[in-house]
Amino acid sequence: MIQHDLQDTLIENRLVAILRAADASRFADAATVLHAAGVRVLEAALTTPGATDAIATIRKKLGDDAYIGAGSVREVSDVDKAADAGATFLVTPTVNPLVMERAHERGLPVICGALTPTEIDQAWRLGAAAVKVFPIAAVGGIAYLRAIRAPMPDIPLVPTGGVHLAEVAKYLESGSIAVAAATPLLGDALTSSGSLADLATRASEFVAAAAKYVSRT
Fold first, then answer.
1. pTM of this prediction?
2. pLDDT means per 10 residues in the chain (217 residues)?
3. What pLDDT is stored for residue 214 in this prediction?
4. Distance linking the first and last C-alpha atoms of the chain
5. What are the residue numbers of the active site?
6. How confident is the model at residue 15, as a pLDDT?
C-alpha cells in the first residue's frame, strides 16, 4: 500500500477502528466482528502486549479484504516490528522524522499524529498519507477541526481521540477524510468479559454513520 492508496482507502471507508487494550488476546475476535459489520480499516496499537502477533493473525484471517495497520508507532524499531508482522500502514501519535523516513524505506504509508498547526503542516510535508489530529476532543473537537481546516484545506485530516457516534457525521461534514474511534466504538469488547454482540451493534451504527459520506471526495 502506498500513500495515495491509503488516502483512497480512507475515503472509501471513512472509519478506522482502533484496537487498544491491556493485552491483544481478543484483537482477532473483535476484528472479525468489526469486519462482519463492514469495518475494513483497523489499527492495532503496539502499546498492547501481543499486538504484532495479533496483526499477523488478523491479516491471515481477514486477508486482503481488510487493511490492518499498526498504531502507537513512535520508534524506528516499531516500524520494523510492524512491517515484519504484516501491517499495511502505520499510525503515529507524534511527528518523528526518523520514523517517517524508516516507514518510507519499508514502503508503509503513515497516518501521522499531530495537534498544532505547525505539527500538522510538518507531518504533511514529511510525507504523511493523512494527518491524525489527536487528541481532538481535548482541544475543542469539531470546532478545532474546522479552525485547522480553514488555513490548510489541502491536508487530509483524521480526527482521533474521543470521537463518538453522534459526532461522526459532523466531523465528516466538516471536511475530515475519515474518523478513527477506539473506546466509543470498541467499548469493553477487548476485555475477557466484554460483549462482542454489543460491539457488532455499535460497529454497524458507526459504519452506517460513515457510509453517508463514502462517495464524497
1. 0.95
2. 88 97 98 98 98 98 95 98 98 98 98 98 98 97 97 97 97 96 98 97 97 63
3. 59
4. 20
5. 43, 132
6. 98
Contact call for residues 69 and 88 (beta carbons, < 8 A)? yes
**Amino acid code (one letter) for 154:** D
Q: Per-residue DSSP letters for 134-191?
A: TTTGGGTTHHHHHHHHTT-TTS-EEEBSS--HHHHHHHHHTT-S-EEESHHHHTTTTS
Give the Cα separation of 74 and 67 in Å (integer). 20
Q: Which residue has the cell 470521537?
A: 163
Question: What are the cell numbers at 4?
Answer: 495515495
Compute the 3-state secondary structure of the chain and give helix, strand, coil in percent, each to the nearest 5: 50, 15, 35
H helices then E strands: how many in the chain?
10, 8
Name the helix (H) or strand (E) containing 45. strand 41-45
Spatial CA neighbour of 91 closest among 59, 51, 60: 51
Q: How far is CA 143 from the centre of its chain?
A: 21
Total residue length of the chain = 217
Separation in Å, CA 136 to CA 3, 118, 153, 176:
23, 16, 17, 12
